[in-house]
User: Which sequence fits this backbone?
């Protein structure tokens, strides 16, 4: 069965520090992989996505993520966090064939302290 | 493009009343998804449509919930009768292709049933 695990429920980092949010998935084959961000009171916004090719993908707002097939992981990173990055982050996977619904992780809430 | 448009943004209703949530997907997107978000359960897929046809409604919690997509530009999610435990944020999302584009989410409808 498909599943997405985000082991960190809540992370606190200082402004300017680096960030890594973890995501592990369980899937029958290499899926499409996504990271979304949700600011308070808002819908989810797509940060970046991986389909194929280069395993390091760049997204909006200075975020990047690296697909590691051997670890079934797709961790999100940012070298220097800004206060405006405080939000909830969701990892998601989708099938390459068949049903086109996405499976979301439970999210990681990021707090940024001055 | 105005994105995925949901209405209303907020809805407060009394237990037992009928509630209808509305969604206008992005023009040209052929898939539409309804999600429910709560603190306890996170993001739950309720139902999704491909080309206006319901594909998977296994996430619809009870017969009190129903969804329709009469045409490519409009969908409704109806709860009748509503109960306090239905209080949540309901998101609509749309996508094109085989999941490769990811989803575009609406801003959500915050439903409170008192």
Assistant:
């Amino acid at each position: 069965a498909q599943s997405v695990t985000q082991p960190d429920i809540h992370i606190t980092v200082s402004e300017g520090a680096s960030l890594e949010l973890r995501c592990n998935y369980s899937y029958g084959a290499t899926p499409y992989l996504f990271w979304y961000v949700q600011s308070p009171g808002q819908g989810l916004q797509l940060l970046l996505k991986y389909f194929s090719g280069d395993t390091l993908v760049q997204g909006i707002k200075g975020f990047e993520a690296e697909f590691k097939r051997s670890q079934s992981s797709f961790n999100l990173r940012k070298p220097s966090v800004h206060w405006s990055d405080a939000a909830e982050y969701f990892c998601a996977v989708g099938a390459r064939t068949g049903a086109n619904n996405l499976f979301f992780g439970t999210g990681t809430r990021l707090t940024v302290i001055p | 493009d105005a994105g995925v448009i949901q209405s209303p943004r907020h809805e407060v209703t009394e237990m037992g009343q009928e509630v209808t949530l509305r969604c206008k997907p992005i023009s040209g997107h052929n898939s539409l998804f309804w999600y429910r978000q709560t603190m306890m359960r996170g993001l739950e897929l309720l139902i999704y449509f491909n080309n206006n046809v319901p594909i998977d409604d296994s996430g619809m919690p009870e017969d009190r919930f129903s969804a329709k997509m009469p045409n490519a530009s409009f969908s409704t999610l109806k709860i009748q009768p509503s109960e306090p435990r239905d209080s949540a944020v309901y998101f609509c999302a749309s996508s094109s292709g085989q999941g490769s584009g990811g989803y575009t989410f609406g801003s959500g409808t915050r439903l409170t049933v008192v």
User: Anything to note?
Assistant: Chain A has a mean pLDDT of 92.
